[in-house]
What does this fold into?
Amino acid sequence: MKSCAQAELTRRIQDLDAVILQPAAEEQTIGVYRVNGGRLAEPFFLRFAEIASQPRSAEHIFREQFEAQAASTDGDLGEHLWLIARWFYSNPRERRNFFREKDWPYRRFFGPARGFWR
It folds into this structure.
């Protein structure tokens, strides 16, 4: 998995598996948008202020969400791809993209995620 500065968006659609992290309006919260086969799944929100008091780690929360989340089949694939391309080519300071190669290296998500509000 490579960050957006190193990875290319161009790949076979069925191999387009990624995670987009974007700051949310709520303080110390990021929106996590999973891409599976070129389709965006419903986002989930990771609230770092809440998880600081929980026995679960952020990595554990990512794993749970990714295992439970099914790929979206709603909407036109072209619309999903258009949104992903728009995100990918937008200002990288406003979001981070990670592409899945073999497995998700969850720990690599945390540096960029925390950096959004520093």
About this structure: The chain has a mean pLDDT of 77. The CA atoms of residues 100 and 107 lie 13 Å apart. The longest strand covers residues 29-36. The radius of gyration is 14 Å.
